[in-house]
Write a structure and sequence with these properties.
The structure is a single chain. This protein is an alpha+beta fold. The protein has 3 domains: 150 residues, 3-Layer(aba) Sandwich (Rossmann fold), CATH 3.40.50.10140; 28 residues, no CATH class; 102 residues, Lipocalin, CATH 2.40.128. Helices cover 28% and strands 34% of the residues. The strands form 3 sheets. An 8-stranded antiparallel beta barrel has the order 8-9-10-12-13-14-15-16. It has a 5-stranded parallel β-sheet with strand order 2-1-3-6-7, sandwiched between helices. Strand 10 and strand 11 form a beta hairpin. Helix 2 crosses helix 3.
Length: 306
C-alpha cells in the first residue's frame, strides 16, 4: 500500500515530517512518499505528478492554519496554476485517488467557496484531526482510515496471506533471477558536466551549469545560480533521482539574507528533469527546467558568464 503526503512547507513542514516517520514505521519506507519537489515543467511536470499520484492508494492532504492563505508575490499560492499543493490534490481528485484531509495545528476544514475550482471537491471529503497531545492515538486512527479507504487489508489479513505470498516469492525470485541475467538496465550515469536554460519566476533567463561527481550514493560538485557556481552540499543519488543543495546570499538594500537553493532531479539518459526551490530569499516559487549533458570530457571548473 502506498501513501502520498501533500503538504505546504510554510504551513506544516514539522507535522509532515513527523507524520512521514510514523507512517513509514507502519507501511514501510518505500511506501510513503512526501515532498514532490522533483517535478519538471511542461510534459515532464505532468507525467511525474501523474505517476506519483496514480501509484498511490491514498493521498493525505495536510492542512494547517496557513494552508489557505500562504501567498507569493502578493497572490494566494492556491490560486497559482503551478502551485505544487494545488497540482497534487487536483491530480488526485481528477484521477479518482482517495484523498483524506488531515487537519493539524487546530485548523478547520476549508469550505468550498474558499477553494479554487479544481479543489472544490475537497470540501466534501471527511477530514481527520491530528493533535500533538494524542499523536499516537490519532495516527492509529488515521492508519485505519487510510487502509479502509484504500480497500487494503489490515495487519491481521496481511498475516493470513503470508504463506501464499511466500510461495509466490519463491517462484518470482527464480523468474526474476533468470530475466535479470538476460536483461539488466543500464546504470544511471550522473558524473560529468551539464547545462540548462533556466527562466526564473521574475522573468530573467540564464544558462546554468552543473558539474557532478558521485561515489557510493554521495554527490559532490557545483551548480550555478545566476551563472555563479555554488558548491553542492548534502548531495545524494538514489536510483535515477539526484538531490542536493547550494547556498548563497541575497542583498536587498541594507539587508543580507542567507538563501538555500534545493534541487531535486530525475535522470533519463542525457537529461535531468530538475525542480529548484529557494528558501530564505525574496522568491520561493519553484523553478522547473531540464539540464542536458555536455559533450566532451568532464571538467570540474565553471566560470561565470561576463
Amino acid at each position: 500500500m502506498k501513501v502520498f503526503i501533500s503538504y505546504r512547507r510554510e504551513d506544516s513542514a514539522g507535522h509532515a515530517g513527523r507524520l512521514h516517520d510514523s507512517l513509514q514505521s507502519h507501511f514501510g519506507a518505500d511506501n510513503v512518499f512526501m515532498d514532490l519537489s522533483d517535478i519538471d515543467s511542461g510534459t515532464n511536470f505532468v507525467e511525474v505528478i501523474q505517476a506519483a499520484i496514480r501509484s498511490s492508494d491514498v493521498v493525505l492532504a495536510l492542512i494547517g492554519k496557513q494552508w489557505l492563505t500562504c501567498s507569493s508575490a502578493g497572490k494566494r499560492r492556491l490560486d497559482l496554476p503551478n502551485d505544487f499543493v494545488r497540482t497534487e490534490i487536483a491530480m488526485a481528485l481528477e484521477h479518482g485517488v482517495p484523498v483524506i484531509p488531515v487537519l493539524v495545528q487546530g485548523a478547520g476544514m476549508p469550505l468550498a467557496p474558499s477553494l479554487p475550482e479544481p479543489l472544490k471537491q475537497l470540501a466534501v471529503h471527511d477530514a481527520h484531526d491530528i493533535s500533538d497531545e494524542r499523536w499516537s492515538y490519532d495516527i492509529d486512527r488515521l492508519i485505519n482510515a487510510t487502509e479502509k479507504l484504500a480497500g487494503k487489508a489490515g495487519p491481521s489479513r496481511r498475516r493470513s496471506l503470508a504463506a501464499i505470498a511466500a510461495a509466490i516469492l519463491v517462484i518470482a525470485t527464480g523468474l526474476g533471477a533468470f530475466f535479470s541475467l538476460r536483461s539488466r538496465p543500464a546504470p544511471i550515469a550522473l558524473d560529468g558536466n551539464w547545462s540548462a536554460e533556466v527562466t526564473y519566476d521574475w522573468g530573467d533567463k540564464y544558462t546554468e551549469r552543473f558539474s557532478f561527481t558521485s561515489d557510493s550514493g554521495a554527490v559532490i560538485g557545483s551548480a550555478s545560480f545566476l551563472r555563479v557556481p555554488r558548491g553542492i552540499v548534502d548531495g545524494s543519488l538514489t536510483g535515477d533521482r539526484v538531490v542536493f543543495q547550494t547556498r548563497t546570499e541575497e542583498v536587498s538594500g541594507d539587508r543580507t539574507a542567507g538563501v538555500v537553493h534545493r534541487y531535486r532531479g530525475t535522470i533519463a539518459g542525457d537529461t535531468i528533469a530538475f525542480t529548484m526551490q529557494s528558501e530564505g530569499g525574496s522568491s520561493s516559487v519553484p523553478v522547473q527546467f531540464t539540464a542536458k549533458r555536455d559533450a566532451g570530457p568532464a571538467s570540474n571548473s565553471q566560470e561565470p558568464s561576463r
